[in-house]
Amino acid sequence: MPSRTEEFLARAEAIEKEIEALQQDITKVRNTVTKGSPPNKADEVAGEVARLTELVATKEAEMAELMRAADEAARKGT
Questions:
Q1: Cα separation, 28 vs 76, whole angstroms
Q2: Domain map of the chain by residue range?
Q3: Mean pLDDT on 6-23
Q4: How far is CA 52 from CA 24, 36, 47, 64, 70, in A?
Q5: Rg (CA), the chain
């Protein structure tokens, strides 16, 4: 059975992969706008980029909390 520390670290690693995927999605979305794109397309892309960026920030905060919990569990030896 994995320790609590290992569980926290595994969850943090999974979140890190989610963040990487979201960052790739942001790049893909940004690349859909070209110089000749209509303004409404740029607005749509900006909204989607903002939404994805917010998800990244949420995931980063979640990962930071898991890392703090892992550190605490490691100090307690659990």
A1: 43
A2: 4-76
A3: 95
A4: 10, 24, 9, 18, 27
A5: 18
